[in-house]
Amino acid sequence: MNLRKILLFALGPLGNSVLGLFILPISAWFFTTEDIGRLSMYQLVVSFSIILFGLGLDQGYVREYHDSPGCQKDKLFKTLFLSAITVLFLVVLVSLLIPVELSYLVTGIQSKWISLYIILGVVFAFISRFLALILRMNERALAYSLSQLLPKLLFLFVLLSYLYFEVESEFESLIAAQLAGVVSAFVILIINTRISLIDAIKESFDLILLKRILLYTVPLIGSGLTFWGLAATDKFLLRLLSTFEELGVYSMAYSFSAVALILQAIFSTVWAPQVYKWASKGGGGENVKDSVQIIALVICLVWSFVGLLSWLSLLILPDEYARVDVLILAVIAYPLLYTLSEATGVGIGVKRKTMYALLATFIALVINFFGNYLLIPLFQAEGAAISSAISFFIFFIIKTEYSNRIWVEFERFRMYLIISIHIALACFLNLFTKTPLELRLFLYTGITLFTLILFWNEVKRSIGFMNNYRKLKR
Questions:
Q1: Mean of pLDDT values over 115-135
Q2: Is the distance from CB of 175 to CB of 114 less than 8 angstroms?
């Protein structure tokens, strides 16, 4: 994959982050912190549904795509998509029969309309997930990015229309705006993948292929659910042990972590398919060794820059979100360390040893659960942030070490050292929230300089690469 395609793949996450700079303050000023917390619970339900009811078949499609010649790719998609969507619709039918209103379970509000919005949101997001994979694996970077960008764009448009027409700021309006964005992405994806879908319809359903791929993906279901639990435990326990208001403040901090989600989205889109492509040709080890250190450098620098700039969030948010700038320093551990673990732990996927990923996630989940259970009553949202940061650090280390044992081994001391410092500082600042801003800026400036010194060879290699690229462009 060339640099131009990587940049086009980056367009979606970058655009989403820019739009987020407008969406976050509008949402914060127009809706209550409780409604922001409720929206977070809705988003967790959507992500849970994609993981559980997709049976890991979306990941199976990515893993087997390059090993499927010609029209076998269409058969692969039809077999996996039909299997997953059948499971989803069966679950939707069952959910309609439960005696308790779905909206009350998720948001604490009794409303048939909100229940309908939740179901539609799950269905459209689920289908869109599979359709987007067609664009991603065919390296149609611009179309893929636009499909990721459109939901946020329409969400922003609907929010602005609420302001213009003075729509009442109820949660039903907020979730309706979110649903409008998801439906728009679905429509665009249908248009952009119509030729591939028609070709897939012509292919037969392959039960033998499904059984073979399920042998690979069944452990991924457990791993995916466990990882979802790892990422969602803090929010669920805040919901149970605290209030929707605390959850709203915490969720806003997570939203501001979008600067790191750019890296996660770009990296997840580009990295795994590329490494699997290398591995299918019998190589990739040396490329991974060279890439990991540079990726670690980027991750650590992003964390430092967030530490230097998080106070800017206070300029655009209401007073009830005054703690967000400190919470960001810890909650950003999730997207950053998950992204880095995708690089350092890719050997688990290459060797198909998915049980290792499951074990790493399960250990981190147990630690996160007990950490949140103990710290939330004492420190509220800050306790959840501390527990989450420590848990993802443990997840990252275990996954990295397993991958090193079974595939390619690379140097790890420097990245462990810098990340340990970031974790310790984030926890300290969330425990002592009154720490002067000047001291915080001084500490993060020191970490930035230390990172550059420690990774100086990687800095020079990156500068050299960019200079060579400019010369070639000329």
A1: 90
A2: yes
